[in-house]
Design goal:
CATH architecture of the largest domain: 3-Layer(aba) Sandwich
Radius of gyration: 18 Å
Helix content: 25-40%
Strand order of the largest sheet: 5-6-4-7-8
Mean pLDDT: 96
Number of strands: 8
Number of domains: 2
Order of helices and strands: EEEEHEHEHEHHEH
Oligomer: single chain
Low-confidence stretches: none
Strand content: 15-25%
Shape: globular
CATH topology of the largest domain: Rossmann fold
Structural class: alpha/beta
Number of helices: 6
Amino acid sequence: MNVCFQCGMYHADKLIDPTGPFAICPECGYKHPFQQIPLLIIGGASGSGKTTVCQHLLGHVTQAVLLDSDILWRPKFNTPDTHYRDFFELWLRVSKNVSQSGRPVVLFGAGMGNPQNIENCIERRYFSKVQYLALVCTDEALSKRLQQRPTWRGSQEPTYIEEHIRYNRWFKAYDSQPAIKLMDTTSAPVEETARLVATWIDEGSR
């Protein structure tokens, strides 16, 4: 959609006319009709249960497209100096194009759950709204889960565990806009958490 159908120029920063909605090419003024629907994001620290819940929902949630943001991670995106902006822009661009099928995208990813990483992206304008859900748990549960992971993942390193405990606490302390809905996975069965997440997806897709 970033390539204009009329003049062929590339622009991610098109003006949005909500009456269509249309994405207006700044070069030639062509009004590109598109579907501006919600984007749903499920974040949380590593070990909070994102991947487990996603796996339980696959094949059961059909009104949305579920994607794990880790599948596109590459070393070139490891740019803390730009707050990993290219990675988030890429995922919003992918989600924008996938959602043109008429079904919203549900993105699972740790960094995706921080609104500061999403709301300032150029591609954010193509969604009618972005809904945020964060899975959280106690520090003890998070530490135990990370220590039980396979060694190759590097999750057992003390610095890694402490980093994600801090991130887990950040979600719990977050009190700003846009809002982040919290869901505690400390002792809840995976099936119950998956059911609640499925309900949240259904409500947020409307």
